[in-house]
Amino acid sequence: MSADPRSSSAGSPVRLESVTKSYGSTTVLHGVDLSLAPGELICLLGPSGCGKTTALRCIAGLEQVSGGRITIGSDDVTDVPVNRRDVGMVFQQYSLFPHLSVARNVEFGLQMRRISKPERTARIGEMLEIVGLEHLAERFPHELSGGQQQRVALARALVTRPRALLLDEPLSALDAKVRVRLREQIRAIQTELGITTVFVTHDQEEALAVSDRVAVMEGGRIAQLGTPEELYRRPVSPFVADFVGLSNRVEGRLDGGVVRVHGASIPVLEAPQLTGVGAEVTAYVRPEHVRLEPVTERIDPLDAVVVSSGFLGSIRRTVVQLADGATLASQHGADSVLRPGDSVRVTFAPEAVTVAPRS
């Protein structure tokens, strides 16, 4: 019996140093720097065209970098071909061999590495147990659900015990409930095996749920790198505030360390480019920091009327309109039921917000 992969050491560190990638005159990666600690899971998050998949493909060796360097462990792999980088890859399209059973699909990489038959059998059994598919070892891909096929692809990537695991939008083809369940399973398996992982997604909820850290990408650069909590609570730019979670865009004026919006004052995060008093800005206010209190009549500048209110399970999302026509979204407890036409008073939680010059 081979050594259980669950007892193996943590994965290898992965590092990108000033990595650039150009296609002719078009540059899609602009000097990307990123370091992953052994066993860490980092999500590359961003909209289509931001460079996240290109960065992943450069790590894999599927794209040749135009400048900079990539290391895995202590090895410089910048010019090493993909088949010699010792990474596992799972993509949106599972690419399972339709004529091979689950066990034979998982075995394929081991055969290519000329692993002995007893060792292959042991590893296949261990990996199928980890992904919860040992009872389906002799099934064929067309006999499996989408989530089961994705777990086969994950097992196939992990069975060779790679130094790093690369996941390119692996859940985007699945329905919502299966996505949530499978992302939790992937995170549990990744943590159990201690494998260094890069996970590419455009789904900010997915990124926040599974990551140790998230690299938000914009225009081929990393706009911000931090824990999910840091990105959500202290976004460094309007782009990050707008892309990670929901934000109300509220017009206001700077006044020292606060921004005045509709007669209320909200503290601001550091904005050195906007020093001074009276600068016109847009403040990015999270819906959960917009508080609503029912009133019998609207007499205050922050009094509003409810436009809509939707039930979202444990919370409700309510949209209100102020007297000047501005709208605000609020997220609050599901027990606080507000109906269209109700009058409410708006207050803001004293949570610091990101601001930007008003365009």
UniProtKB/TrEMBL annotation:
Transmembrane segments: none annotated. The keyword Nuclease does not apply. GO terms for molecular function: ATP binding. Keywords: ATP-binding, Nucleotide-binding, Transport. Residues 14-244 form the ABC transporter domain. InterPro entries: AAA+_ATPase, ABC_SmlMolc_Importer, ABC_transporter-like_ATP-bd, ABC_transporter-like_CS, Mo/tungstate-bd_C_term_dom, P-loop_NTPase, Transp-assoc_OB_typ2. It comes from the Bacteria. This is ABC transporter ATP-binding protein. It comes from Leucobacter iarius.
